[in-house]
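Morning!

This is the sequence you dropped in the shared folder:
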Amino acid sequence: MITIREYVESDAKALWDIHFYTIRNVNLRDYSQEQVEAWAPDCLDFSVWKKRMSGLSPFVAEIDNIIVGYTDLQSNGLIDHFFCHYEYQGQGVGKALMFHVLSVAEERDIKRLYSEVSITARPFYEYFGFKVVKSQEMEVRGQKLRNFVMEKYN
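The structure's back. Tokens below.
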């Protein structure tokens, strides 16, 4: 069973691992080795990551007390991070997290949800009714990565 809870600071390392290994293993289907290494670098200032996660206040998904994914929802409707552990893909983790985001958005009366979505995640967001607003190229550590601004109105 998938449970979703609020972030606590001790989750930071597990969330970094999910972020890193999902990009390196799953997003590699749609991006080059150089691109995924720029997006999820080997060297990281962990204090910066912890501060970032505290600022995002993510929702954390667990199966049997193992952290298997996370996402967030900002007050302006931005979903900044959305990652499912690469070994738990296809097991409903992403769906549970997105249903949670949609529920929280409704509770908070957030009418427009949007995100900058990877090539890999685009079909998942489309499944939930998000539409592409524009395609864009982002530069990350010297690498250009294509993604999509997608939105959904509640």
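Headline: The two ends are 27 Å apart (CA to CA).

More detail when I'm at my desk.
O.
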